[in-house]
Design brief:
By secondary structure, this protein is α/β, with parallel strands linked by helices. Helices cover about 35% and strands about 30% of the residues. β12 and β13 form a beta hairpin. The chain is elongated. The structure holds adenosine-5'-triphosphate (ATP).
Length: about 325
């Protein structure tokens, strides 16, 4: 097969997807470099599953260009499929078959036979730590073990790119750690991994880069550290009665440790140069003007606060 050597394993440009009148992906562009773990972070309904299904060649895009390993998704899907492993959110396993037979089934779909198939099954079972359960029917597996087997199925044909849709949803903490370890091990072996999640601590810990998605758009894309840096010295949310807002906003902006401030209804959003001194200044200001503070929140510098800062929403319902 002709080999292409692209700069990016995934390159998405101006991707649009609609369901009827509803625009679910609204001009999404990003690229994923060889060997990185790339996270798509967003709340339910952000469009993550839609996006990953398009990358997995399961759903056609309406507009825009997608290149996977240099191949065009619209014209060269047949070349792309052997290069990617897709692990869907829903388990795609046969409960009455053993782990081994499930993997043999998926391996045959990719044309693996005989010793090559057996070797691959052993390799992927080792990789997800299920070799000693190879002969057991999947029905008898715990939820976490089924997820790990699902990942093994996505790896059976030795793809270059692994696409994982919410691999740790509904999984107990131990299996979650296992899955983390597998993902890190795969990266160490040179695999490129894109995965979706709405767990921000997970994305912060695991991903080289993260795209924050909401309502079909990418709002920010950077390393977790870079994204957290968007908060500067920290962000404070303060609530006061609406009648005080106009009076207060310009005074808040003039405080020495405040970098920027904006208001919506009763909420003041304050970007600080340093959260603690800014907090003291705010309290003094409100006291001096006799303005009651209805609520006050200092956002910890983490991805969750970045998300809240960018969207005004919490990532968790
Ligand atoms: N087949 C479909 N027909 C119509 N609308 C759909 C379809 N699939 C998804 N949607 C809508 O598209 C939007 C994005 O859904 P998607 O599943 O991609 O989001 P998500 O970020 O993966 O969320 P979740 O974590 O809940 O899966 C949602 O509003 C959803 O209702």
């Amino acid at each position: 097969m002709e080999k292409r050597t692209p700069n990016s394993v995934i390159k998405v440009d101006g991707l649009v997807k609609r369901y009827g009148d509803r625009v679910v992906l609204n001009g999404v562009s990003f690229s994923v470099r060889e060997g990185e773990i790339f996270g798509l972070l967003g709340p339910n309904g952000a469009g993550k599953t839609t996006l990953i299904s398009i990358l997995a060649t399961l759903l056609p895009p309406d507009e825009g260009q997608v290149l996977i390993c240099g191949y065009d998704l619209r014209r060269e899907a047949d070349r792309i499929r052997p290069l990617i492993g897709f692990v869907p959110q829903e388990l795609a396993l046969y409960p009455t078959l053993s782990a081994w037979d499930n993997l043999a089934f998926f391996g045959r779909i990719y044309g693996l036979r005989g010793t090559a198939l057996q070797e691959r099954i052993t390799t992927v079972l080792d990789l997800v730590g299920l070799r000693d359960r190879a002969g057991d029917t999947v029905r008898t597996f715990s939820g976490g073990m089924k997820r790990r087997l699902n990942i093994a199925a996505g790896l059976i044909h030795g793809p270059r790119l692994l696409l994982l849709d919410e691999p740790t949803v509904g999984v107990d903490p131990q299996s979650r750690n296992f899955i983390f370890e597998h993902i890190e091990r795969l990266r160490a072996e040179g695999m490129t991994i894109l995965y979706t999640t709405h767990y921000m601590e997970e994305a912060e810990q695991l991903c080289d880069r993260v795209a924050i998605m909401d309502e079909g758009r990418i709002l920010a894309l950077d390393t977790p550290k870079g994204l957290i840096g968007l908060l500067g010295g920290g962000v404070i949310h303060m609530e006061v009665a609406a009648e005080h807002m106009e009076d207060l906003l310009s005074a808040v902006r003039a405080l020495p440790h405040v970098r920027a401030a904006s208001s919506r209804d009763r909420q003041l959003k304050i970007e600080t140069r340093a959260a603690r001194p800014a907090l003291l200044e705010l309290i003094q200001l409100c006291n001096a003007r006799d303005i009651p503070i209805l609520s006050l929140e200092v956002l910890e510098p983490n991805l969750e606060s970045v998300f809240l800062h960018l969207t005004g929403k919490r990532l968790r319902d």
